[in-house]
Amino acid sequence: MQDHDVPIELSVLIPVGKRHGDIAELYAEYKLALEQLGKRYEVIFILDGPNRILADVLRRLQTEDENIVVLGLTRAFGESTALMAGFERARAPVLMTLPAYHQIQSADIPQLFGALSSYDLAVARRWPRAGGPWESLRRAAFHGLVSRVTGLRLGDLGCGARAFKRRVLEEISLYGDQHRFLAVLAHRQGFRVTEVLVHQSFADRSKGEYRVREYAHRALDILTVLFLVRFTKKPLRFFGMIGILTFGLGILLILYLLAQREFFGQPLADRPALLISSLLAVLGLQLFAIGLLGELIIFTHAHDVKDYQVDEIIQYPDLAAASLEGPDRSEQFPETSRIATPTGARTVSS
Fold first, then answer.
1. Of 285, 329, 102, 271, whose CA–CA distance to 200 is shortest?
2. What band does 348 get if pLDDT is binned at 50, 70 and 90?
């Protein structure tokens, strides 16, 4: 029983989709770890789509524990959408996401929470990790490619255990499968991100067998992250680079065909290479034009896009005291007397 006079300090979001374990057993394990924090908390279960059996289980748990909140979505929208729906109803300044199945040992949950004393977001990494050579190679290749693309070295993007401050999701909107890349997107926004080593749950023994479609999805996810991290405000560099290469290849082929026509007497008619080279040149121009349009859109909306975070604000000393030693600094620097401190920023007086 928690003290109702104490404000909620931690909101735990647990999205429940197609893959889930024994919810009652899992919640009992999580609850033991959360109680060790000594904080007033709430646990929000988000049912990603109708599920009568799970809904009945959660209602029974809710009658036994007043800390539980159950949120049901009309259909399956995906884990990212479920997390955002839960975030909109969370009340605490600190949030934590936990999987609806066994991934980590619950005893390591306090480590995630404790990491927020120095960081804005902490993601769990299961270590040592069970799995065969093929699974280890697949994970290493995926995370190595993500590290090359983003510059952030992480080793377990598939782990659903994370802890972060509220302002992280106030600045980042998740959709699709972007929940896996929350740490990457937060790092891009200037938040401080760390990885916490935790023990893998004994019940988490996935064999890592995926269909070809899953590998294709992960490849597209990496391409999406590449664009979001490096080219969100520089679309011309992405589309322009591809457009110039495509256009240049098309022009070179056209010049080659013209040289054959002029110096070797080969006709241009009925040659598929001429059609292909022309299409490449036109496609290159179109891609370049898309990049220019993207730059114009970014330019017109740049004032609405915030991709930075304020860590601290350094103010001038007390203006009244400073005026005794010299000219009135408030007249020289009138803006210094109107500095506002945003939420979450630290203020340091020099």
1. 102
2. very low
Interatomic CA distance for residues 25 and 31, integer angstroms: 10
In 3-state terms, what secondary structure has residue 347? strand
Q: State the pLDDT confidence band at 310, using cuts at 50, 70 and 90.
A: confident
Is 83 in contact with 185 (CB distance < 8 Å)? no
For the range 277-281, what are the long-range contacts, defined as Cβ-Cβ under 8 Å and sequence gap of 24 or more? 277/249, 277/250, 277/251, 277/253, 278/250, 278/254, 279/250, 280/246, 280/247, 280/249, 280/250, 280/253, 281/246, 281/247, 281/250, 281/251, 281/254
315-342 pLDDT, tens digit per residue, is: 766 654 555 555 554 444 444 333 444 4
Query: Residue 153 sits in which domain range?
Result: 10-230
Q: How far, in Å, CA of 350 to CA of 333, rounded?
A: 16
Mean pLDDT of the chain: 87
Confidence class for position 122, pLDDT limits 50, 70, 90: very high
Token pair, residue 301, equals 């909306």
Indicate if 324 and 299 belong to the same structural domain.
no
Q: Alpha-carbon distance 230 to 181, whole Å? A: 14
Instruction: Write down which residue in 203, 230, 257 finishes a domain.
Output: 230
Out of 188, 213, 230, pick the residue that ends a domain.
230
Looking at the structure, tell me whether residues 279 and 337 fall in a common domain. Answer: no
User: Is 264 domain-assigned?
Assistant: yes
At 104, phi and psi to the nearest 5? Answer: -120, 160
Domain with residue 211: its CATH number is 3.90.550.10
pTM of the model: 0.79
Same domain, 181 and 33: yes
Query: For 278-315, b where at least 16 C-beta lie within 10 A, e where not — what string?
Result: eebbebbeebbebbeebbeeeeeeeeeeeeebeeeeee
Shared domain for 77 and 203, answered yes or no, is yes
Q: Is residue 296 part of a domain?
A: yes
Q: Is the domain of 225 the same as that of 340?
A: no
* Cα-Cα-Cα-Cα dihedral sign, residues 47, 51, 52, 58: negative
